[in-house]
Design a protein that fits this description.
The strands form four sheets. The chain has a nine-stranded mixed sheet. A six-stranded antiparallel beta barrel has the order 5-6-7-10-9-8. A two-stranded parallel ribbon has the order 4-11. It is globular and about 60 Å long. It has two domains: 252 residues, QueA-like (3-Layer(aba) Sandwich); 76 residues, QueA-like (Thrombin, subunit H). By secondary structure, it is of the alpha+beta class. The longest helix is centred in the last third of the chain and has 13 residues. α6 crosses α7. It contains seven helices and 19 strands. 19% of the residues lie in helices and 29% in strands.
């Protein structure tokens, strides 16, 4: 397929710049991937569409304050976006500057601490934080929350709360698992009361999630890699759910990517790993039966994933319907609940 197949015109007014006043107050478009049927709904009605014994899986990653500003030793301004924390004193980062720094160069960040550029790996720079304080602690003290590029305001105190899920706990993401932003404690409690099981995994979302596909033929696209961890308790619940004939619902494309990555050899495995899985139309899903997700960017790998899950034409029609009905798009926007299209032929592209 061609990247252009996944393009669409989105009025800028539909790009949500701020979250709803209440987390659970968003709209929700239901899509039956088998029939293509669409139904307008509300997120608060989500418990009505899951059954007792179903399993819902959430990504509990927490967004780090990954954006830093500073100056090079030459005096030039520089912006650093941490992509991945490697250990207590090293990280990979994107760097914006009039002239890219070279290995051995030092940078002063936030007028508070110094880092050394060790080397460069493609578009990422390996940095050594020259401070006894750990990278995560320095980011928490001096960094800014890295809001997506389509959100036009700078991160404020409200964003520091609302761009994190209420169940986030494992620091490491540079973008939120945005499907989880809709959930609040009352909704989670109601789901449990109705017999829906809830499990967690961790996938640290990278900045590459916002990158458009820049090749014409999508099979030539190289995916970014992300770290994930799936506890044994989550795997056992998945097996129990499947044996009972109930459904596994992934909350967000990040949870889905982790689950499908862990099942590439057939049976899902617990543990820590790294994934660059690229799910496109034709992929045969091994774990997930239902997907809850936000509306995604044109020509993005996430839109391609949704098209694989719901069917290409069904997804295309659903997005046009959402635009016509003025649903709110992207991270702070509305959501979809999608029942899987089970007629897709088996295929997978992986970089």
């Amino acid at each position: 397929m061609q990247t252009q197949d996944f393009d669409f015109d989105l009025p800028s007014a539909l790009i949500a710049q701020y979250p709803t006043t209440k987390r659970s107050a968003s709209r929700m478009l239901r899509l039956n991937g088998q029939s293509g049927k669409l139904q307008d709904s509300l997120f608060s009605e989500l418990p009505d569409y899951l059954e007792a014994g179903d399993l819902m899986i959430l990504n509990d990653t927490r967004v780090i304050k990954a954006r830093l500003f500073g100056i090079k030793s030459s005096g030039g301004a520089i912006e650093v976006l941490i992509e991945r924390v490697i250990d207590e004193h090293h990280a990979l980062a994107q760097i914006r500057a009039s002239c890219a720094p070279k290995a051995g160069n030092r940078i002063i960040l936030s007028d508070a601490f110094e880092v050394e550029v060790l080397d460069r790996e493609d578009d990422l720079f390996r940095l050594h934080f020259l401070n006894d304080t750990t990278v995560l602690d320095l980011l928490e003290r001096h960094g800014a929350l890295p809001l997506p590029p389509y959100i036009e305001h700078k991160a404020n105190a409200s964003d520091n709360e609302r761009y994190q899920t209420v169940f986030s706990k494992n620091l490491g993401a540079v973008a939120a698992p945005t499907a989880g932003l809709h959930f609040d404690d009352p909704i989670l409690d109601l789901l449990k009361q109705r017999g829906v099981n809830i499990a967690y995994l961790t996938l640290h979302v990278g900045a590459g999630t916002f990158q458009p596909v820049r090749v014409d033929d999508i099979s030539q696209h190289k995916m970014h890699s992300e770290l994930y961890s799936i506890p044994i308790e989550t795997v056992e619940l998945i097996k129990k759910t499947k044996l009972a004939g109930k459904k596994v619902t992934a909350i967000g494309t990040t949870a889905l990517r982790a689950l499908e990555s862990a099942a590439q050899l057939g049976e899902i495995k617990a543990g820590n790993s790294e994934t660059n899985i690229f799910i496109t139309p034709g992929y045969q899903f091994r774990v997930v039966d239902r997907l809850f997700t936000n509306f995604h960017l044109p020509k993005s790998t996430l839109l391609m994933l949704v098209s694989a899950f719901a069917g290409f034409e069904h997804t295309k029609n659903a997005y046009q319907y959402a635009i016509n009905q003025q649903y709110r798009f992207f991270s702070y926007g509305d959501a979809m609940l999608i029942e899987k299209n089970t007629t897709q032929p088996a295929s997978i592209e992986q970089s």
